[in-house]
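// run 5 | inverse folding | seed 20
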């Protein structure tokens, strides 16, 4: 390790332990703005038109589901694409020719692939570097300590590019990333300060960004040329994001050691995990970070400083350990600052075990984990990692890891 990397290590250690950050006094954008714009577009059409479109959409969706189910069967991996239609939008609008009192249409709110990976699936142990962060000049980085990853329906990957203060997009096959949002640390509504996680709300095609050091969660229309976001939730030190099929948004608040749930416009906060006390009891968390929510709205939390992953069933007042034993360590039943998590359809938990430089797998009920990739010491070899953070799987089971302190994104082929 050269001195630059050691320096980064220091800085990151500060990050996880709550650095001071400037408060943000930017005015809050009205969350209703989006609803209204959306509503007025719909209102322009006649009801008949809307119905026709809905029926067409349903047919297209059905075709996609059948197509995907039939085509994506490979080896012991089966991809099930599940669709949920819900959320009826209602708006009252006044047009010159007629008064439409209530237009209802069904919009697709979630399109989340669920992976069924066999418990003995294997991945190539040598990762392919799809993004080499360090540029030739060694002074700038394509990705600089990447954190959370998100994969979209086209299998493109969004990257919370932590120390470049931006969100990048990587398209399959490319050697470069495209900056989607941010770049240059700041508090303006087009800027970020240490983003740590990102996701897409498919219904509106918006990016939701955990802008950690600005203590806010932002929402930005993905393809909008307007590089101004709106503040969805202010005054929260978020450390991880998830969205469920009903479009509830989950945010880990690592200052209050809780996971909170909001509606899609950032309102109606409910605590779903943690008491607000920092601790290691079964109802407590200690620096919760990455989260995953399954179909039943059970929440899985990387309880970072407790060195464990907790499953918190919907409505439960306590969680249960599903990975790690809560005691820091390097042996297979322990974790050391767990980060990104993914849970497959059989409840197997995949976790980036940051300080152990590996990705682990914990099948349901397991009392010990097994190595998915890494565990070959801290380093930058193709079979090594240096504090992995975010992880995602594509439709065919290939694994992508934000190898944060190596400033690169690694891909591991599914065997
Ligand atoms: C509808 O628009 C007309 C003309 O612009 C206005 O006079 C009327 O008050 C409006 N009605 C509502 C319900 O907004
Ligand atoms: C960049 O760093 C690498 C590895 O530390 C070194 O081999 C290379 O010479 C450096 N390049 C420049 C332009 O400084
Ligand atoms: C850009 O978006 C912001 C927030 O959504 C909005 O307030 C602003 O008016 C928009 N600017 C332009 C030029 O459309
Ligand atoms: C907030 O939650 C309450 C009860 O859970 C519900 O009745 C209300 O409609 C929600 N409000 C919004 C704006 O979603
Ligand atoms: C949990 O916390 C208590 C009190 O802080 C401590 O004594 C105990 O060792 C901790 N347990 C683990 C597994 O770290
Ligand atoms: C996963 O796939 C296997 C066979 O490929 C099947 O037996 C099992 O029921 C599936 N599990 C789920 C949860 O879909």
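// decoded
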């Amino acid at each position: 390790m050269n001195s630059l990397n050691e320096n980064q290590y220091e800085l990151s250690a500060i990050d996880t332990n709550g650095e001071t950050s400037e408060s943000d006094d930017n005015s809050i954008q009205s969350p209703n703005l989006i609803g209204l714009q959306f509503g007025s577009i719909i209102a322009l059409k006649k009801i008949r038109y809307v119905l026709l479109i809905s029926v067409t959409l349903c047919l297209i969706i059905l075709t996609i589901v059948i197509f995907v189910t039939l085509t994506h069967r490979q080896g012991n991996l089966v991809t099930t694409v599940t669709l949920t239609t819900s959320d009826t939008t209602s708006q009252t609008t006044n047009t010159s020719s007629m008064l439409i009192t209530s237009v209802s249409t069904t919009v697709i709110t979630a399109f989340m692939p669920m992976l069924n990976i066999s418990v003995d699936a294997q991945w190539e142990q040598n990762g392919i570097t799809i993004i080499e962060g360090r540029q030739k000049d060694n002074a700038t980085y394509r990705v600089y300590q990447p954190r959370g990853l998100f994969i979209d329906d086209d299998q493109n990957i969004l990257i919370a590019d932590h120390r470049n203060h931006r969100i990048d997009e990587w398209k399959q096959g490319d050697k470069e990333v495209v900056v989607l949002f941010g770049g240059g640390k700041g508090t303006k509504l087009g800027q970020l300060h240490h983003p740590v996680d990102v996701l897409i709300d498919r219904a509106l095609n918006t990016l939701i960004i955990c802008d950690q050091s600005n203590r806010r969660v932002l929402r930005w229309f993905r393809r909008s040329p307007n590089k101004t976001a709106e503040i969805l939730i202010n005054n929260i030190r978020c450390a991880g994001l998830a969205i469920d099929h009903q479009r509830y948004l989950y945010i880990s608040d690592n200052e209050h050691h809780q996971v909170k749930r909001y509606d899609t416009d950032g309102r109606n906060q409910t605590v779903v995990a943690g008491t607000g006390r920092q601790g290691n009891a079964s109802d407590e968390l200690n620096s919760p970070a990455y989260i995953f929510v399954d179909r039943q709205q059970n929440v899985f939390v990387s309880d970072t400083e407790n060195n464990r992953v907790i499953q918190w069933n919907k409505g439960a007042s306590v969680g249960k350990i599903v990975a790690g034993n809560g005691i820091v360590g390097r042996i297979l039943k322990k974790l050391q600052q767990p980060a990104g998590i993914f849970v497959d359809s059989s409840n197997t938990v995949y976790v980036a075990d940051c300080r152990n430089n590996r990705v682990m797998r914990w099948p349901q009920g397991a009392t010990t984990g097994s190595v998915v990739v890494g565990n070959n010491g801290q380093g930058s070899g193709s079979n090594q990692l240096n504090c992995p953070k975010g992880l995602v799987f594509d439709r065919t089971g290939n694994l992508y890891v934000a190898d944060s302190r190596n400033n690169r994104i690694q891909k591991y082929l599914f065997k």
